[in-house]
Automatic annotation (TrEMBL):
The lineage of its organism: Bacteria, Bacillati, Bacillota, Bacilli, Bacillales. Residues 256-278 are annotated as: Disordered. This is FHA domain-containing protein. The chain crosses the membrane at residues 280-298, 304-326. CDD domains: FHA.
Length: 524
């Protein structure tokens, strides 16, 4: 089955390996090409581009790109994860390939920057290979800059954790009306070098933390411990007590919240002692204030006025002592910095529109898991989803009439023949003498060994993480090998990776040692 994009048909064949084939929906002739670009690509291996061959059959030209041993980027994105540094490096490779295209007399708009037409080596996205089509005009194809921006947004969903302001600065540059790839290349290089430096500093700090206990342990082994054992009532509130759990400041768990007495108050946050510079500035300010105060003292003043000036002096000194030494429990730099980071994260979410793709903290995940186990007697929680309902459902009498949804009414009015025609197909898995039936309830059904990413887990040695996919297209079903290492057999015929094969009743699919039979007893 052929698919179309930008006015081209694309399919996959075996020709001295595995090839991606492009052909026009109408006739494609050599006069439609940029001849210099076509000769340049056929005569040279250009870094970052898939090798290209052209073939003319019946005055119709087809383009073949060799993808043997390559993996489609869209398939990697289903299971792969980027670090922020790897994300910058991947985009830097793509931007560098496009920026260097003028060296080979290639145009920017000839690139197809879509994950279905970008390939990588195995499980490593370090060296992306791009598709370049040397056609003068491509119908309905977005400009290269627009494609690059959309690709960067889609790839950001694969980042495990986003930190710092570099990501938002990159998106700001990509969202400008016009940008040059050499500018994006320079920006990505700067972000990548800063991420590498941050990683080096964090690794160095971790090594220092690991070395300190080692030195202390060596000293403690060489000298006997003569310290007195403190009573248990002292260790109960110790900083190193096993019974205490670390948690972020200002956040209370549900258990801790229930155990707090309403009459108790949290202790004020501890402050660092004032530095010498703070004391010096405080003393200078106090001295200036006292000089200003006593400059207004009249030369011939009464005895009561002297007491008033002395009292004002003591009040100023007391205020200085409170400010420098005690310092009231006002929000400090740490809290303001944390608040600023929160606003920065909110700006990134609003700018990217990828809030649902951002990683959820482990605390929230644990809370969601605990909610799934809750069952409310008032209808506030639903057993199937474990999520809080928007409004509590009022109690209903047992003899009350149930309100059916429109789709339920439509299903109830369908004749038996129509219901039989919509019967779902099944897969019959034959493995080691055992037979298992699997109902295909989804439009896309994936078989592989990566639990959590596939619909049917096959853990036999030699099965790829994402091995085979069964796709429903309108009223027909197709099978597609997802670039597996050991391949798949369709009716005892080797499947070309990523090519769609039709499935009829009784069709067989062989995945290593497991044979799947497609069963679909539907009305013709």
């Amino acid at each position: 089955m052929e698919h179309s994009i930008y006015g081209f048909h694309y399919d996959y064949i075996r020709h001295r390996g595995t090839c991606l084939v492009l052909s026009r929906t109408d006739t494609l002739r050599y006069e439609h090409f940029e001849r210099i670009e076509l000769r340049m690509m056929e005569a040279n291996e250009i870094p970052g581009l898939l090798p290209l061959e052209s073939e003319e059959i019946d005055l119709n030209v087809k383009l073949r790109y060799e993808i043997t041993g390559k993996r489609m980027l869209s398939q990697w994105m289903k299971t792969g994860r980027f670090t922020l540094e790897d994300y910058y490096r991947f985009l830097l490779k793509c931007a560098g390939t496009i920026d260097d295209s003028k060296t080979y007399m290639l145009r920017e708009d000839g690139y197809w920057l879509h994950e279905h037409f970008m390939f990588i080596d195995g499980d490593s996205p370090d060296e992306p290979m791009l598709v370049y089509v040397p056609i003068r005009i491509a119908d309905a194809k977005p400009p290269a800059r627009e494609q690059f921006k959309e690709l960067a947004l889609r790839l950001s969903a694969c980042i495990g954790r986003i930190e710092g302001s570099g990501f938002s600065s990159l998106l700001s540059a990509l969202h400008r009306d016009t940008f040059e790839f050499h500018e994006i290349r320079k920006l990505l290089g700067t972000l990548l070098s800063s991420e590498t430096a941050n990683e080096f500093r964090s690794d160095r700090n971790e090594n220092l933390v690991k070395e300190v206990p080692t030195v202390w342990q060596a000293a403690s082994e060489s000298e006997p411990d003569i310290r007195m054992q403190a009573p248990s009532w002292i260790n109960a509130g110790s900083e190193y007590g096993d019974s205490r759990q670390e948690q972020a400041p200002g956040i209370l768990t549900a258990e801790a919240n229930d155990s707090i007495d309403p009459g108790q108050h949290a202790a004020p946050n501890e402050r660092e002692p004032p530095t010498g510079r703070q004391r010096l500035l405080g003393g200078a300010a106090a001295g200036a204030g006292l000089l200003l105060l006593w400059s207004f003292y009249p030369p011939e003043a009464e005895e009561g006025l002297l007491s008033i000036w002395t009292g004002l002096t003591l009040l100023m000194l007391d205020a200085l002592f409170v400010w420098v030494m005690l310092r009231p429990n006002w929000p400090g730099k740490g809290k303001l910095h944390a608040l600023a980071q929160t606003y920065t994260a909110m700006e990134e979410r609003e700018m990217t529109g990828l809030t649902s793709y951002l990683s959820v903290p482990a605390k929230n995940q644990q809370t969601a898991v605990s909610r799934e186990a809750e069952v409310s007697t008032e209808g506030v929680y639903e057993r199937s989803t474990g999520l809080r309902a928007e409004a509590a459902t009022p109690p209903r009498r047992q003899d009350a009439t149930v309100l059916l949804r429109p789709e339920a009414l439509a299903a109830a009015g369908q004749p038996a023949e129509q219901k039989a025609a919509e019967r779902l197909p099944e897969l019959e898995a034959h493995k080691g003498g055992a037979v298992e039936r699997i109902r295909l309830t989804r439009d896309r059904f994936v078989i592989g060994r990566e639990q959590g990413m596939v619909d049917y887990t096959e853990e036999t040695a030699g099965v790829s993480k994402l091995h085979l996919e069964i796709v429903r297209e309108h009223t027909e079903y197709f099978a597609k090998d997802l670039g597996s290492k050991n391949g798949t057999l369709w009716n005892n015929e080797p499947m070309v990776p990523y090519k769609w094969y039709p499935l009829k009743d009784g069709a067989s699919l062989q995945v290593v040692n497991t044979r799947f039979v497609f069963l679909w007893d539907h009305a013709e």
